[in-house]
Structure formats: C-alpha cells, structure tokens
Amino acid sequence: MVFFDTNIFIYIISAAPADQTKRDVALRLMRESDFGLSVQILQEFMDVTLRKKQLGLTHNEVAAMIRHMVGYPLVETSVALAQQAFEIKIRHGIRYWDAAIIAAALELGCHTVYSEDLNHGQDYGGVTVINPFL
Q: What pLDDT does 31 receive?
C-alpha cells in the first residue's frame, strides 16, 4: 500500500489549466495504486481547495471528493500518532506536519509516500518518499 499526500488529491480535482500534466499523473496513480491517507490529508485538502480559487472548484465538488476519499484506508489523528510524528520530526529534521504524514503512512503499513513536498527518494524509517511529478 502507498500513502498519498494532499497535493496528489488536489491535482486530481484541479480545474486549473496549469495543473493538467500533474492531474494526469495523479489520476494514473489513483487508478493504479492501493492507497491510504489520513485525517490530516482531508483537513489540508479542504483548506487548500476552498481557499485557492484558481483551482476552479465549487463547494459541492470539494464535498464530493471528500466523500470519495473517506472510502479508502484512513488514519485518524491520535495522541500516539502525534508522539510518533514528533519523534520522526526530531530524527529527520523535518517539519512536524510532514512528520505526521510519515507517521500516518507507517501506521497504515505503507512503504511509499507520494508527495512533492518531501525529499524525493529519501527513506524515513521504512517509508520512501517519491515525487511522481519529477
């Protein structure tokens, strides 16, 4: 199983012409992957898609995507997850919210995180980050 960072979902639904190539890559990943996500990803997705008007999304489109996203394996935020994320942050010198993504991926048993926000190819204690847009 793989883990999708927020940007994968944003590109899947983006109507921005500048995102066309990334949308195609993200859609292919979604079709071809057994993936999971976390509540943090849902929260970030809602925030970004409703705030960035250039994505061209309506409230109803965002709501429909969220209903779709929650049908996949989903890690909820917990004290244990926050503590693990803190340890990952310290160990790897990354931002807490990025570490929380790694912690959620580990909790789901994922071996790969698809993201354009972390170091491509780096292993974070058993989870490797791949930037599919390179």
A: 96
> Which pTM was predicted?
0.93
pLDDT at position 34 is 96
Question: Both tokens of residue 51?
Answer: 């705030």
Per-residue burial over 124-133, b = 16 or more CB atoms within 10 Å of its CB, e = otherwise: beebbbbbbe
Going across the sheet that includes 112-114, the strands are 74-75, 35-38, 2-4, 112-114, 128-130
Residue extents of the structural domains in the chain: 2-130
Query: Which residue shows structure tokens 């705030």?
Result: 51
**Spans of the chain below 50 pLDDT:** none
Over residues 57-81, the pLDDT tens digits come to 888 988 999 999 999 999 999 999 9
**CB–CB of 117/98 below 8 Å?**
yes
The CA R_g of the chain, rounded to the nearest whole Å, is: 14
- Specify the DSSP class assigned to residue 76: P
| Architecture per CATH, 2-130 | 3-Layer(aba) Sandwich (3.40)
Question: Rounded to 5 degrees, what angle do the CA atoms 71, 100, 48 make?
Answer: 65
**Cβ neighbours of 24 (radius 10 Å):** 12
